[in-house]
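Contributing: when you submit paired examples, paste them exactly as shown. First protein:
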Amino acid sequence: MTRGCIDITPRSLKTAMLTLQQADAVDLLVSKGLFMPSSRRQFLRTFSLASLAGTALLRPRQLLPREAADQRKTESAGTASDTREEMAKRVREEFNHAWSGYKQYAWGHDELRPLSRGYRDWHSVSLYMTPVDALDTMILMGLDEEAEKTKDFVAQHLSFDHDISVKNFEITIRLLGGLLSSYQLTGDKRLLALAEELGNRLLPAFNSPTGMPYVNVNLKTGAVQDENTNPAEVGTLLIEFGTLSKLTGKPAYYDKAKQALVELYKRRSPIGLVGAAINAKTGAWTEPTSHIGGGIDSYYEYLLKCSLLFGDKDCEKMWRSSVEAVNKYLADDGPAGLWYGQANMNTGARIGTEFGALDAFLPGTLALSGDIDRARRLQESCYKMWTTFGIEPEELDYSKMKIAYNGYALRPEIIESAYYLHHFSKDPRYLDMGHTFFESLVKYCRTETGYCALRNVETKEKSDQMESFFLAETLKYLYLLFAPAETLDLSKFVFNTEAHPICKDFSAGRNVGSSPTLSNGA
């Protein structure tokens, strides 16, 4: 039943990296209020940065026998024993497994600790990170009863009236994005009210001399801190704040986030690149290393996606000039395949050959932009990174095919790219990849209570972490890769960087009766 729409400082500062082995120590600091949790897109580099001082729910359509037979004919060797319908069912079952573990051992808290069967909160109070992040995944998977219960819990209990300092970027992509998406998919105005309240509490972050936001903002007082930031944290806000403007009719949210994006773009180098770290207060670059990984990645992603979501011509222009520079100076095309490395933002000189799990977003973004050939070639490199070690490492020196950092945080980017490439090319090669990703996750990361990050992809030693993005992104993209095409019509939606689908029709949710359908009948 479908009724319509209704992270980053320079990679060179390896000695300051936050590793999975340090997670327990960080949690202790968090509990004492001495350290704010790191961005997932800054997961490896937070310490380095510090040192730089609606409508109804959706159900998957049951395939007709002839359709199922046609699908089976397109399955290649890797998925011969599992039809797409069966694979989608398996992914949904694994979501239920992880969600059940969260409910049993961490309900009402931000995250599940699957090994210790406990929980972790980012702050002194929970902001229900996992329920908000996972809600639209439940909706897309057709888990109607569970989605309804979760939606009501969030609407009745989530409060932002707390004297806590939060990371503007993470709260925006996870909570603001999650609330807006779930509002559009359900039409529940309580979710929009929460989103607007949160948006208002985050707005003081933009009150810098440049208009680029500070890293942290207090939800109660509006006090800001941490002027040393990066392109991702500055430029990955417009989808969420822009959507809030469209849904509320209040332009201030769009204007603030757009200004931040433009101010960053204006500070690109003469050859069109951005660096790894910038001061939001002065506008000066503090690290000139340019790359496409954590801390810069989603800046590029949002230039493209905001042009598609809002029809913003400025964003389209900024995307085109930026990707041209990225392809010219960061792409490294050789006998070992196509990769993207590091270069000096001012000279374009190559200074590094590292590529990792976060960089694997780029094939999907390139595919979304229409550059299918380049996207295909880069995805093959990403897949090589995964299969060489049984699961992808956080960082790889592709010039030597040696691991530079050996953790794995249950990241979704490589799966996201397979989803986009399959959507646009219909090539079963990407279903094979999805099958490989799924089996690796089940084999190496599954536990009795959920899924774990890995401390080491070589030894497959587990870490006691299951971040909310595993349910919001990793399993969502896996599911959509195998689910019927009408589960979500990508021509009508744009995903934020946390995989929250935002409907291009901003009447959705406010005028449920006239909302367009999610399905295009494909």
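Second protein:
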Amino acid sequence: MQKVEVNIKIIILFFSCITGGFQINAQISPGKLSAAHSHLEGLSNCTQCHEIGKKTPNSKCLSCHTELNNRIKNNKGYHASYEIKGKECISCHSEHHGVKFEMIRFDTKNFKHELTAYKLTGSHQSVDCRKCHDPKYNQNAELKKNSKTYLGLSQKCNTCHEDFHQNTLSSDCASCHQTDKFRPAPLFNHQKSNFALNGAHKNLDCKSCHPTEMRGGKEFQKFSGIAFQSCASCHKDAHAGKFGSNCKACHSEESFQKISGNSGFNHNLTGYKLEGKHKHLDCRSCHDNRNQPPHKFQEFLLIKDIQCVACHKDVHDGKFGIDCKNCHQQESFRINSIPSTFDHDLTTFKLEGKHEQVNCKNCHKTKMTDPVAHQQCNDCHTDYHQGEIYRNAEYKDCDDCHSVQGFAGSRYGLDQHQKGNFPLRGAHQAVDCKSCHLKRDRWTFNLPNQECRNCHGDQHKGLLPEEYYKPTDCRSLITTAPPRVRSGSVYTNIPPVWNIGVWVIVTSPRWSSWMIVLRVFQAICR
């Protein structure tokens, strides 16, 4: 017995020496700091970046790098992107590799610029980084002092490019121009301006109305401040004002020589403005003596609210109301896409969550009016769980656990788990779901074999006789009596050292050799 106690004391002393050695070595720097951090060399500066007993926390880095800290807090820039946010700074910018070590390994060719919230397109993709990230374009006076920084740029075009329009138009260049080249301006839509181009105006060269001149010593094309309130602003009045200034009352923009059939008549006075194809119809197409009017052209006199169905057949049979203009235009009944004004709630399927962002054609493969199955989610969506959920009679559709806001995440919580065939008890309640249910990068919830050792293994195999526990049920382990060890073919009660948490397995009748298994070495841990 005395020999056993002596051996144990030797082991405890040995572990104490090792532990003390580690504590001493931990105070020694693992290497030189890079040039940028060289002013922090020395043991007295360790806590500037490190916390005792912990890794280097992000808070230490960001306490110095305040500009990055502010951008992350405001959810701006590369370090706030989904690929970077939440990472430890040292995972990309490690230290103690020598003075010449480059902490920022910036691969300009493969850098994902879109993570900065500014995607490079067109000609920007081939421009050298430093062409834009030049201190002279930096909008931040403090950051401008650092010639190597990539921060401080504005996303406005005129930060780097000269304003060709010399402040006569909006500073939002991207509303008209693309990054491929400055001219032409393909995004500009003259139809959305204060002067829509119609008729012969569509075929005119821009310079016919927007002349080029020299201003401030530079070429300048005038796009603003041009009078267009009446035809006479550009065209000579052949009638010398005899017929007023409303030329369109008789003439069209197709040609001055083309005279309209309803010359001089202002149809707006009827309360029904002619738009789209209605403007080109012969008057008698609508005024055809229907409803037996008291006078000519008074067919609609007694109709207070003239709707499309007054003349046109409703192909939808009233399912979507009578305000056809919610979807259709008067230019043509045919539509290329459902406009945002369409109220999908009028159908039997209300659009909510992510469904509101889906292109109509993703669901309506053929005609928009053809029926689409939608009673259950898997009428359109692939069953991620491959049928294993539907085996449970309580859950029949995806919306029992998921929402239309997104498939990721689940409403299935602890309360529901407790009603299942494996209620969570004890430490299981704190275990992350994916520890049990994420297998080979796929979530699965059909776990037929729920024995403890399937997840935890048999921790007692070879250490305890099976007469003290059932390998298939850890909860059967006998803990009230001290375990016995095997000596040859005889089991012997373990020596009193059991009380300090050490198991001694006797491997020979003479107790001449020992194998020590540390189960709960409380003395050292303390």
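If you have annotations for the second protein, write them as plain sentences, like these:
The radius of gyration is 40 Å.
The first strand starts at residue 212 and ends at 215.
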